[in-house]
Design brief:
It contains two helices and ten strands. With 128 residues, it is mainly beta. It comes from Cephalotus follicularis.
Length: 128
């Protein structure tokens, strides 16, 4: 599910992807937000098509806004195509119980005593 968000002062499109093991963002986000890595470590990531990419740097405790909801997330730097950032199982595990309603592209969970509903972005319909 794709959602709008903010990292630093940078408007971003994030992919919420339960099949991704970690959270990632691309170089553009780092350049536009002025973030610095906390760790220089790198590791290889196998993406959906089987290709392997190298992550270069860990960014701990990055403040993001998801549709007005502040969150703190750890990200790895990875060249991403099509998205500014990916929130994977690393982030999803921190949320506790989650309700997905795919027909409405909504994801609901509770954080800090408040119920949160994230609205996914609708894709334009393909016409033949």
């Amino acid at each position: 599910m794709r959602v709008h968000g903010t990292i630093g002062h940078c408007q971003v499109i994030l992919l919420i992807d339960s099949s991704s093991t970690h959270n990632f963002f691309n170089n553009k986000v780092v350049e536009n937000s002025g973030l610095s890595p906390n760790s220089e470590g790198s590791f290889e990531v196998a993406i959906a098509n089987g290709e392997k990419l190298s992550s270069s740097g860990l960014y701990d405790g990055v403040c993001i806004m998801l549709q007005g909801v502040p969150m703190v997330v750890d990200f790895y730097l990875l060249p991403l195509g099509g998205y500014d950032a990916v929130l994977g199982a690393q982030w999803l595990r921190t949320l506790g119980p989650i309700l997905w309603e795919f027909s409405k592209l909504q994801m609901s969970f509770s954080t800090c005593g408040s119920n949160v509903v994230l609205q996914g972005m609708h894709r334009p319909e393909n016409r033949l």
